[in-house]
Structures are given as C-alpha cells and as structure tokens.
Amino acid sequence: MKLQYQLNIAFTALLLIIMGVTGFVIYSLILDLLIQDEQRQLEQKGEILVNVLNETYGTRSDIQQFNDFLQEQDLQLFLYDRKQNAVLFSTMSDQVVHGFFLNNDFSNTNEELWEFGNDKFVTSRILFYPENLGLELILLTPLRDIQVVQHNFIQRMLIVFLIGSVVTVLLSYVLTNKLVTPLSRLKRQLKKIEKRKFDEVEPIKATGEIKEVAQSVYDMANELQRYINTQQTFFQNASHELKTPLMTIQGYAEGIKEHIFDKADEEKGLEVMVNEVNRLKKIINEMILLAKLESEQSVYNPDIVDAKALITQVADRVRPLVNEKELQMTYNVDSRMELVVDEEKMLRALLNLSINAVRHATSQVRITGSNAMKQIVIEDDGEGISEELMPHIFHRFVKGKNGETGLGLAIARAIIEQSGGKIFVGKSELGGAKFTIQLNAQNGNK
Question: Per the UniProt record, which residue ranges are transmembrane (predicted)?
C-alpha cells in the first residue's frame, strides 16, 4: 500500500477514535448537565411559589386556599406533609399520585429521580417557612422531555462532527499529497543514482526535513560523481606510475638476459633496476597505507599528545636534509598545546609536509603551533604552489615540481582528517607554500 493511502487511513482512523471518545463523553455528560439545569429551574419556580404561599397563606389551616392557588399553576407538583408522610395536594390525578407514592419514598430527600410506570421524573424539593410547618413543595419534570433535548443536541453534534470529518479528511489528503509528492520525486532521483546517472540528478522542491534529505541526496550524487571521477583518475595515474618503472625494469632485464649490454652497462642496469624496484615498493606501500587510512578506522589509535614534543621529533628527523641543503629551520610551539591524535601517524603526516617544505625551500622553513588558534603551520620561502595546482594538491598522484610519488600530501590529508582536523594550502608570507593544519587541540599546563 502506498504511503499516501497509509497516512490517510491513519489520519481517518485517529479522527474516528477521537470523535468516538469525545462523542461518548459528551453523551454521558450532557444528560447529567440537563438534569442539573432542570433541577435549578424547578427550584427557582418552587421558591417563587413557596414565597408567594408563605406571604399569602401563613398557617396549615389554609390548606384549601393552598390547593386552589396551586391548581392554577401549569406544573406537575405535590404538596407534601412531612409530619404525616402524606400528599396533601397535587396537580395530577389521584391515581397518578397513588402510583408515585407506591413506587417512590417521599421521605427520602436524597432521591433525585422518581419512577412511575416506565417513565422517570426529575424532582426538586422546596421547604415552606417556618420549617415547623412540615410542608414541602415537590416539583417534577418527565425525564423524557430532557432526553428529547439531549437527542436534539447529539444530532446537531453529529452533523458538526460529520462536516468536521469531511473537512479533516480532505485536508489530510491535501497535506499527505504535499508530503508524499516530494518523496516520490526523491525516489526517482535515487533510481538515477542507482543507475549511476549522476549527471541527471536534479534538486527537488520540498520543505522541512524532506528538503534536508533531498539536499543530502543531491550532495551525495555529486560526491559519488566526484569520487568515481577521482577513482578513474587514480587508476589512470596509478597505472602510469607503476607502468613506467616496470617498463624500465623489463627493458633492462631483457637486455641483460639477451647479453645486449657490456659489463659496465649491466652493472648500471642492475642499479637502475634496484632503484626502480625500491621506488615501486615505496609507491605500493604508500598506496596500501592510504587505502587503510581511508577505509579502516581500527588502524588509527588516538591519544593525548604533546604538540611541542611531536614537532621536535619532526625537526630532528628532517635536520639531515635541512643541513644538506644548507637551510635555516625554525619551530615555535606553544608549550600548553596538546593534540588528540595517533602519534605515529600524525608524525608521518607532519614529516611528509616538512620534507615537502624542505625540498622546495630556498633558504628557510618555519613551523609554528598555536594553542589559541588550535593550529599548526608549516611554510617555506620556495617558489610556492601555482593557483591551478592548489585545488588538486592533496589528490593522489598529483605532483608538484620535484615531487616523488605524488602520495605524500594525500597521506597527510587522510591522517589529519582521521584526526578530526582539516588541512589548507596557501601562500606564505615567506614567499613559498603554507600548509595550515586545523586540529582539535586541548589546553594543558605543562
């Protein structure tokens, strides 16, 4: 069953349940309210009659005059004598009075409903003053008259409920249609993603959470398209990077096998083959590391690391290369700065960035760590990175001038992102490249 029909059925069922419960409660309460209202009206009428009778006829000897006055009232009532437990007068026939007297306890002042035949009557009792007279006026109203009012009210309520139900169902249909239509369109876009037609995926018009989901789907399609393009580029670059040393190795191996080279050339060829094998080994190892970093969370074990001690290790390891190129290397890290990272892998990332800076520097390399800014900056005074290359510098096999495998910066980015950080590249005030690592640093008192 379609979602729209399910929602409509759910709304309708909920409406019927609410209306049923509401109707039952109202039906149960309305009769009690009508009875209470009728008793108040009877009480008001009775008090008026009693006041008139008290003012006009003051003693029990005026019973006949009582009777004449009450007979003129268009009411169902009894004039009851408590002392004698007898009805002195009634506007109803003697047979009816006798039936009421047999079926009901006139002396029980707590009984509000009396019975006569198959009918019930609402009663209201008013005492005459002074109370020592022992006279009481009892007024009655047939319950069926009140039930007629109740039924009329319920009928009108049912009409209102019916109109409200129709309006609610129509409104439910409109709202669910508005809700489900974007989902149907979103389903068609997902089908395009399933068939890898990423270029055909289009944003859909929606509101609220559905809009957020639709935007996420659209972004996912773009990211998948980018990922597939990146993978294709990766395989093309990887095949090229692996093919070149393999062809060199194959050429020298076949030449040596066929004894084409003399002794000196064979020695040179073997040396080239060893170098190319080492290069292949390095490329493959870096590719495996990069794949693990991007796919296996278990290879990354974060801990609290002293940033200054970590940068000191980096400086010590690149110092031979710095001395070889006769460069000046300075580093300044806040002693309070701590990082939540995998120390070994972050050391690898910083080494890759530092060696890259040393390789391209002209005279100096600078590393700074700011606890306030929560970042580490590595920069040099070399030729820098071209504007065209900057957006792609962290992609696999993208090499700048004098680059080696083209995987060092990609590995550094993967490690930093695994640490919950970001890396940015720009131009340094020194004139060369500037790599900024934004990490989740912690303050500590060292």
Answer: 12-35, 157-175
